[in-house]
Design a protein that fits this description.
Blueprint lengths: L2 H40 L7 H20 L7 H17 L2 E3 L6 H12 L4 E6 H9 L3 E3 L2 H9 L2 E4 L2 E6 L3 H11 L19 H7 L15 E3 L18 E9 L8 H7 L9 E2 H10 L3 E8 L1 H17 L1 H32 L2 E10 L1
Parallel strand pairs: 2-5, 6-7, 7-8
Antiparallel strand pairs: 1-3, 4-5, 7-10, 9-10
Helix pairs in contact: 1-2, 3-4, 6-12, 11-12
Amino acid sequence: MSVSTLCKFRDAYVYRLSQELQQIISLCIAIQDRAIGILIKFLDGYPWNYWTLEFLLGIVLVLFFASHFWPTSSSRTPTKNSRRARTTLQALQTVIVPTCSLWPARYINLVQYASTNGTASNIIIRLSMFLQDVCDGVIELRDPVSDLEDLIDGDVGAYGCYVCLSVEWKWWVEWLDQMLRGDISDSTKSIYSPYHPASPHIDRLFHPFATSPSSSVEHGPIIDFDNHPLTHLATIRLPQGSHTTLQFTSLSNHISFLSTKHILCMIPFLARRIPHRLSDVLATVNDARNFKLSSLTNTSTAYADTLAVVSTTLAYNPVARKQCVDELGIKGWRKRRLVLEFEAALVRRGWLERWNVVLEAR
């Protein structure tokens, strides 16, 4: 296309635009004159100035035509953001749901922030807020064990968005504080003492292997070693040739000390004894004079399934639910279920392991 042709096109476009603008101006003047004439008839006798009316009507007409013929891009932005916010909220609802008809304001803020920042919407929920809201009955997980298993290992994706947990530094500080106070090995008390069972019956509901001690036909009495320090092994006395079984949960060998995974593994044990390392237990058995190792079995899969079943029982069995609520209150009941589900997710992920150690008395 030649330059002369472009110039002709430009001149024609400018002429057409000027013609339409003149028509709009003529229409404004006609409407203005008509409106002033009508107003003068109705306001005859009042101290209104003709030029004042003309000025006011002019402003109204300018604002009217400006809003209709020159829309700004900002009028379209809220629509796009609203669509994205609804999609982000749908993604959040695939993992957690509010227990009432309205979402708490803090979750709406998370959704709005995620929908307006970056190309990928990451809904980041603080671990402390998540745990507290579940215990307080503000939110619920749709599929607790499966969703927790994905959340602790990264995120849950849906509708192009990702829901993930953020582990704050307070958890490391709290853990180090417990270490300095010597509460890691020998104390079953903690600042999360409401998690701790109040009676043997509720203890069994909370932790299916916490009966101490129970009997086994093949391997003698069963001792839940999660509730005892390693030094407890030296206090056990059995007839020579008899057996006993130690059941305990341990950290996997690939979990680094004070890593994010390590901190997450400690969540179910904040009201109980911190889990032993398998290597520490085996070293203690090896040094014991009154026992020798008979067998070692990994029972993690069955243990995770049992934890999930116990949580489901507490949720849907009316007798078990009533007993737990009567003993611990409604908030304690929610905490109990959360601890069971969290531990089951960690075991399924392979970060925690369940072991049966059969010992023979010498």
